[in-house]
């Protein structure tokens, strides 16, 4: 796994999805070298970079041009640029021109999650997987409600990573934000 500090950062772009969460996403998505992955809200490129090491192809979308530039730098830094397509656009417009994919990771939706889920559900291949990562309560609520309304059975886990920090007396654990991983598989 690539550690968080190994990604180039821009102050205008949120940092990468934390290393341990990227690790869980790789496992939960069951990604293989036959899969085409769509990363919605690629940001720094943390998820794009890790998935590009395993998947056949990653299509990375972000509406923020700085995020696309940063993801481009990070995939080059980590040597995985050959199987990554970058799309600078909002997710809904970008998805309209993409077909035949196997896994969708949604890490940024800007209030359009309901419509994004509807679109990806109509376009995913058989055995497709949808994964939403959510920090906001509203994101978790919309994701669960929408996936159920599409006839799917979302699995929900919430993870809080704590990191050991050395202080004078020993090691103190400091917690990161809890993050929900909401996943569904199309049968
Ligand atoms: C928290 S960051 C994702 C970090 C990323 N997973 C990583 O590992 O580097 C969320 C990103 O979603 C993007 N975003 C939010 N709403 C979007 C939308 N509707 N369409 C495309 N990108 C969107 C933001 O511009 C931001 O860069």
From TrEMBL:
It is an enzyme of class 2 (transferase). It comes from the Archaea. Pathway: Cofactor biosynthesis; adenosylcobalamin biosynthesis; cob(II)yrinate a,c-diamide from sirohydrochlorin (anaerobic route): step 8/10. S-adenosyl-L-methionine binds at residues 17, 41-45, 62, 91. Its EC number is 2.1.1.196. It catalyses: Co-precorrin-6B + S-adenosyl-L-methionine = Co-precorrin-7 + S-adenosyl-L-homocysteine + CO2. Keywords: Cobalamin biosynthesis, Methyltransferase, S-adenosyl-L-methionine, Transferase. The keyword Transport does not apply. Residues 35-136 form the Methyltransferase domain. GO terms for molecular function: cobalt-precorrin-6B C5-methyltransferase activity; protein methyltransferase activity. GO terms for biological process: anaerobic cobalamin biosynthetic process; methylation. PANTHER family: COBALT-PRECORRIN-6B C(15)-METHYLTRANSFERASE (DECARBOXYLATING), COBALT-PRECORRIN-7 C(5)-METHYLTRANSFERASE. This is Probable cobalt-precorrin-6B C(15)-methyltransferase (decarboxylating). It comes from Methanobrevibacter arboriphilus JCM 13429 = DSM 1125. The lineage of its organism: Archaea, Methanobacteriati, Methanobacteriota, Methanomada group, Methanobacteria.
